[in-house]
User: Which sequence fits this backbone?
C-alpha cells in the first residue's frame, strides 16, 4: 500500500516517541546500575549516558557483600525480598492460572448467561485501597500478614479475573470439533481436557501466565499493606533504599531494578514463540 | 425431530441406513443434514423420535460408546501430536495392545500414503494431508458407522477427486457403513449407494443416485439434482385428439404425455402442473420442427456446453456436446427427447408418476 509522505513522517515520529518513552528510562536504569556514587546525581557536563567509572559496587551493596564507600550500612540485603517476590508472584500466578483456567473452561463449554464472567471482573471496579482494608483485617485474622503465602493468596485472587478472561477468550476460540473428535473416540471429558485441550492450549497458557506473573511481580501497593518486615517484596524493599545522610540511593535502586527485570525478560524470551497468538490453534480453517 | 428453541431444524423423518451402505445426506446448507448426522453421532439428542443402531435405542448412550467414527469438515486434528499419535489415538483410548496398535497404525498409514510422515508433527501438514489423516484416525478403529461431515469442502479441487475415489475404495474394502453429509451433488452421485435429499428439515427423497436423478419425487429434488437442474415449465393439462397434453402456455406448445403419466394425472384430477425435462434430454431439431427459441447465453464447460434459450418465464436450458454448432443471438430449433418428460402437480410440487 502506498502512503503519503506526511503520513509516513507522522508514523515514524509516533514510533520514535513510543520507543523513547519506553527505552530511555530503561536504558537510564541500566546505566545507573553501574555508576559509582559520585556519578549518581551528576549534573551538567558530568551527566553521561555511559558510566565514566563503571562498577559493580551497587550490586555488591544491595546483595550485602560490600558497603564500599557508600557510607551507610543497610540493615538487610536484597536477598530475602527477591525470594519473597519470587515466591509470592510464582505461587500467586499458579493460583490464578489454575482457578482461572478451570473456571474459563467450564464457562466456555458449559456456561450459560453472561453475568458470571462480568461479576468476576467487578473486583477491578473498586479502587484497590477500598478492597485492601477489609483484606488486611481478614489476613490479620488468619495470621497471613507478612507471609509470602498470604501474599501469594491475595495475588492469586486479585489476578484471577485476568487469568479467567484471557483463558476464556482462548477457549472460546478453540474449535469444539477437536474435543468432539476425542469424545467420539470414547475419551472421557476429563481426559479430553487434560490430554487434548490443555496441551493444545500451551501457547495460551504461557502468554496468560506471563501476563499474570508480571502483574504480580510488579505489585507495590498490596505488598506494602500486607507485609511489614520479614517478607517485604522487591518494590517495597526498593522504596526503603534511602538514608537521611545520602538521600535516595539511586545506584542501588537501579541495580535492584535491573535484577527485578530479569525474571520477566527470561520468561518472555522463553515463551516468545507462543506470544503471538498464532495460526497453530489447532489445524482449523474457518 | 429436532427443535432448537422455537426453531425446528429437522421435521420427523424416517430414514433407514443399511449395513455396509454408503448413504449420502444431500441438501443445501441449513437443510438439517448436519443435525441429522450429529444426532446419529450423539452430539445432539432428538427432541422427539428415536435413533436405533441394529434395533438398539441409542437415546442416552454417550457418543463415545456408540461405536461411531466422525470426520469433521475442519479436520479437528490434535496438532500437538505427531501423525502416528493421531492415528493411534482411538486405539489407545480403547486400550489396544501395543503390538496390534503399531501394526494397525502402520497398515492404515500405508493405505492412506501417510507412511513417510508418520513421525512428523501434525501441525505443519497441508490441508489435504490433514483431512486424509482425520479420515484415517476415525477409520482405524473400524467404527460400526462412519460419519463424515462435508469432509472434502475445504480441500482443493484436484485433491477432492482423488479423495472421492479413495473414500469409496476404503468403504468397499472395509464394507464400512458410511453416512456422508454434503451439499455437493457430485460427491453424493459418485460415491453414494443411496442418497437422502433434504431441504428445510424435511427428508425429500431417498434413492440410488440414478433414481434421484431420473425420477425426482418433487420439484425441489428435480431442481436441486443435476447441473444445471431440470427444466421446469408451468402448464395446464388439456385433452386433445392426441390424448392428454400439457399446454405449456408461455412456451407456446402443447406437449403430449406418456399414457402412464396421463392416466395418473387423470386419476388425480390434476390441472395446473409443472412439466419437467432434463437439459441433457434436449436435442437440436431440424429447422422448422420442434420449438424455435433464441439462444441467450452459452456456457462452455469443457466436455459439455450448456445453452440457455429464451428468458424470464419462457426459458429452457440444454446440455450439448462441447462442439455444438450454435452461437448467441441465433434462433435454434429444439426438441425434447421422447420419454424425458416428468410431470409435477403445481399445487403440491409432488411428482405425478405412472405406476
Assistant:
Amino acid at each position: 500500500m502506498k502512503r503519503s509522505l506526511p503520513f509516513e513522517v507522522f508514523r515514524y515520529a509516533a514510533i520514535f516517541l513510543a520507543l523513547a518513552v519506553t527505552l530511555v528510562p530503561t536504558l537510564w536504569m541500566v546505566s545507573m546500575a553501574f555508576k559509582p556514587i559520585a556519578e549518581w546525581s551528576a549534573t551538567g557536563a558530568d551527566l553521561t549516558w555511559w558510566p565514566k567509572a563503571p562498577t559493580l559496587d551497587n550490586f555488591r551493596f544491595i546483595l550485602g557483600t560490600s558497603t564500599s564507600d557508600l557510607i551507610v550500612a543497610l540493615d538487610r540485603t536484597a536477598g530475602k525480598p527477591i525470594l519473597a517476590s519470587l515466591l509470592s508472584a510464582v505461587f500467586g500466578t499458579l493460583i490464578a492460572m489454575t482457578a482461572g483456567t478451570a473456571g474459563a473452561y467450564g464457562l466456555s463449554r458449559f456456561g450459560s448467561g453472561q453475568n458470571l464472567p462480568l461479576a468476576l471482573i467487578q473486583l477491578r471496579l473498586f479502587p484497590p485501597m477500598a478492597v485492601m482494608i477489609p483484606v488486611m483485617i481478614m489476613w490479620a485474622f488468619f495470621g497471613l500478614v507478612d507471609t509470602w503465602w498470604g501474599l501469594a493468596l491475595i495475588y492469586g485472587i486479585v489476578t484471577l479475573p485476568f487469568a479467567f478472561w484471557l483463558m476464556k477468550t482462548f477457549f472460546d476460540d478453540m474449535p469444539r470439533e477437536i474435543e468432539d473428535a476425542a469424545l467420539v473416540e470414547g475419551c472421557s471429558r476429563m481426559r479430553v481436557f487434560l490430554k487434548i485441550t490443555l496441551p493444545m492450549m500451551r501457547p495460551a497458557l504461557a502468554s496468560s501466565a506471563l501476563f499474570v506473573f508480571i502483574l504480580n511481580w510488579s505489585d507495590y501497593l498490596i505488598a506494602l499493606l500486607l507485609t511489614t518486615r520479614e517478607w517485604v517484596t522487591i518494590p517495597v524493599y526498593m522504596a526503603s533504599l534511602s538514608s537521611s545522610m545520602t538521600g535516595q540511593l539511586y545506584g542501588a535502586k537501579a541495580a535492584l531494578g535491573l535484577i527485578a527485570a530479569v525474571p520477566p525478560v527470561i520468561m518472555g524470551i522463553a515463551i516468545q514463540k507462543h506470544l503471538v497468538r498464532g495460526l497453530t490453534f489447532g489445524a482449523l480453517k474457518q | 425431530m429436532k427443535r432448537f428453541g422455537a426453531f425446528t431444524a429437522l421435521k420427523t423423518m424416517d430414514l433407514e441406513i443399511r449395513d455396509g451402505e454408503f448413504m449420502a445426506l444431500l441438501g443445501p446448507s441449513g437443510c438439517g443434514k448436519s443435525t441429522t448426522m450429529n444426532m446419529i453421532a450423539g452430539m445432539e439428542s432428538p427432541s422427539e423420535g428415536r435413533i436405533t443402531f441394529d434395533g438398539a435405542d441409542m437415546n442416552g448412550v454417550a457418543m463415545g460408546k456408540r461405536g461411531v467414527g466422525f470426520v469433521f469438515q475442519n479436520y479437528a486434528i490434535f496438532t500437538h501430536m505427531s501423525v502416528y499419535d493421531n492415528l493411534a489415538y482411538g486405539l489407545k483410548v480403547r486400550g489396544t495392545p501395543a503390538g496390534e496398535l503399531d501394526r494397525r497404525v502402520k497398515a492404515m498409514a500405508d493405505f492412506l500414503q501417510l507412511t513417510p510422515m508418520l513421525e512428523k508433527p501434525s501441525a505443519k501438514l497441508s490441508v489435504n494431508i490433514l483431512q486424509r489423516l482425520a479420515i484415517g484416525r476415525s477409520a482405524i478403529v473400524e467404527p460400526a458407522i462412519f460419519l463424515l461431515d462435508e469432509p472434502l469442502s475445504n480441500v482443493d479441487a484436484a485433491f477432492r477427486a482423488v479423495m472421492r475415489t479413495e473414500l469409496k475404495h476404503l468403504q468397499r474394502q472395509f464394507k464400512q457403513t458410511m453416512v456422508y453429509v454434503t451439499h455437493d451433488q457430485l460427491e453424493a452421485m459418485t460415491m453414494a449407494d443411496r442418497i437422502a435429499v433434504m431441504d428445510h428439515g424435511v427428508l425429500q427423497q431417498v434413492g440410488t443416485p440414478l433414481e434421484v436423478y431420473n425420477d425426482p419425487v418433487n420439484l425441489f429434488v428435480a431442481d436441486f439434482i443435476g447441473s444445471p437442474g431440470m427444466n421446469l415449465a408451468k402448464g395446464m393439462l388439456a385433452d386433445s385428439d392426441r390424448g392428454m397434453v400439457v399446454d405449456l402456455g408461455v412456451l407456446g406448445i402443447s406437449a403430449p404425455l406418456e399414457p402412464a403419466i396421463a392416466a395418473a394425472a387423470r386419476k388425480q384430477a390434476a390441472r395446473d402442473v409443472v412439466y419437467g425435462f432434463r437439459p441433457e434430454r434436449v436435442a437440436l431439431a431440424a429447422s422448422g420442427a420442434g420449438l424455435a427459441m433464441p439462444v441467450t447465453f452459452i456456457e462452455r464447460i469443457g466436455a459439455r456446453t450448456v445453452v440457455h434459450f429464451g428468458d424470464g418465464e419462457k426459458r429452457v436450458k440444454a446440455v450439448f456436446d462441447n462442439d455444438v454448432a450454435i452461437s448467441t443471438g441465433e434462433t435454434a430449433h429444439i426438441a425434447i427427447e421422447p420419454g424425458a418428460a416428468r410431470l409435477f402437480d403445481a399445487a403440491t410440487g409432488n411428482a405425478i408418476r405412472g405406476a
Summary: Chain A touches chain B through 23 residues (CB under 8 Å). The mean pLDDT of chain A is 84. The two ends of chain A are 27 Å apart (CA to CA). The CA atoms of residues 167 and 205 of chain A lie 7 Å apart.
